[in-house]
Specification:
Layout: H1 7-12, H2 39-43, H3 61-73, E1 78-82, H4 85-96, E2 102-106, H5 111-124, E3 127-131, E4 145-151, H6 163-172, E5 176-180, E6 198-202, E7 216-220, H7 223-235, H8 242-251, H9 255-274, E8 279-283, H10 293-299, E9 306-311, H11 317-325, E10 331-332, E11 342-346, E12 361-365, H12 371-382
Parallel strand pairs: 2-3, 2-4, 4-5, 5-6, 10-11
Antiparallel strand pairs: 1-7, 6-7, 8-9, 9-12, 11-12
């Protein structure tokens, strides 16, 4: 080597980090290339070994830090990150189901999850059937049933499922239970104590809290399940941005405070809506009249700030849409969990076949605005 190294070589070569630096925040570790101290360590690298760093796609310190935090919230050993909640759903199905297997989906599932099921049925030969989470006699098991999907409360229509009963029945038939726990956010429902084998969440929602990050996660206490998920994620080349991990980690310390504050605000607004003359039913699990309310009282400790209302049948869709568009503080939007309140009107044909109300439905997400301001906004919009 020459005695003098050019400034350009010095610029390119990695520099030693500060020996002692402590901060209250996590460092963002960006890496595609992971380097090794010796040829021996290079040759012994194994991407399946969770204590090693072998390639930036598998893990970096900040992605592992977030996974550890999420596993800790759920009080289990394992967590994996995905680019979105839907990605977490899809990769769970891809990892655990093969051609000839059968899975059961609730009829009130998150619509993209049902679309993924249909796609796998067409492309991979996996059989999917739906069941009514309010009627466990519709949960029909066959010898090839491998997975039962649970969403509680159900997407849009908010039915609360009896997770312990579903889990007991599923395990009796040797299948796994996966729960979409996005609504409960690892706070309101102890899914693993109630029998779940996996918990799937969209970190895009409450964990982000800023309406600016797309990410999903799967947690499990079972190392064998985790290994299947980890291998599938690696083979499919699925990874997440370290910057996005940092944003989630920055929001996690106040996740619990936000969740409970928004819960109280949402209950106050839902109670006000329940007295409005245009509303037939408030579909909020914490309210009597919402399907599965007694189960919610038994199993849940809190509620998300996402709920729906059903209008009386004689209230036209045109009037509902006009009222929704007249809201000043609620924005028309789909992906909830941030600080800003949202509203989303549904046409009856867009809702699952188990929807038995005659009137149209509107979903509300309550953010962090002043509760009285939000009620005043709804009052003015509904009076038009």
């Amino acid at each position: 080597m020459t005695k003098h190294i050019s400034r350009w070589t010095k610029l390119i070569q990695p520099q030693a980090t500060a020996p002692v630096f402590r901060s209250l925040t996590d460092s963002i570790t960006r890496a595609s290339t992971v380097v090794f101290d010796s040829v021996e360590k290079l040759r012994k690298r194994d991407w399946r070994e969770k204590t090693q760093y072998s390639y930036g796609l598998q893990a970096t310190p900040i992605t592992r830090r977030l996974e550890q935090q999420l596993a800790g919230i759920d009080e289990v050993a394992h967590a994996l990150l995905y680019p979105s909640g839907l990605s977490a759903i899809c990769m769970t199905m891809m990892a655990l189901l093969k051609s000839g297997d059968r899975a059961l989906m609730p009829q009130n599932s998150y619509k993209p999850a049902l679309e993924m099921a249909r796609f796998m049925a067409q492309q991979s030969g996996v059989e999917f059937s739906t069941y009514d989470p309010q009627d466990l006699s519709t949960l029909i098991f066959t010898k090839n049933t491998r997975l039962v999907w649970v969403e509680t409360p159900g997407s849009v229509t908010m039915e609360v499922a009896d997770l312990p009963a579903i889990a007991a029945l599923t395990h009796k038939h040797g299948a796994l239970v996966a729960v979409d726990a996005t609504w409960s956010a690892g706070i309101a429902l102890p899914v693993f104590r109630l029998g779940a084998d996996l918990s799937v969440q969209a970190l895009t929602k409450y964990q982000s809290g800023g309406s600016d990050v797309m990410m999903g996660a799967v947690t499990t206490a079972d190392e064998g399940i985790h290994d299947k998920l980890f291998e599938a994620r690696t083979i499919f080349g699925i990874g997440v941005s370290p910057e996005d991990c940092y944003l989630i980690l920055r929001s996690l310390p106040h996740l619990n405070l936000r969740y409970h504050a928004q819960d109280q605000s949402a209950r106050k607004i839902a109670a006000w809506l329940s007295q409005h003359s245009d509303i037939e039913r408030v579909l909020h699990p914490a309210f009597e009249g919402c399907p599965g309310h007694d189960i919610w009282r038994r199993d849940f400790s809190a509620a998300a700030s996402l709920f729906s209302v059903v209008f009386r049948a004689e209230i036209t869709q045109e009037k509902i849409d006009r009222s929704v568009e007249s809201l000043k503080l609620f924005r028309l939007g789909v992906s909830w969990g941030g600080a800003v309140s949202l509203v989303l009107p549904y046409i009856r044909d867009q809702i699952h076949s188990g929807y038995h109300y005659q009137g149209s439905l509107v979903r509300f997400y309550i953010g962090l605005e002043d509760t009285d301001d939000l009620i005043e906004d709804i009052a003015q919009a509904f009076s038009l």
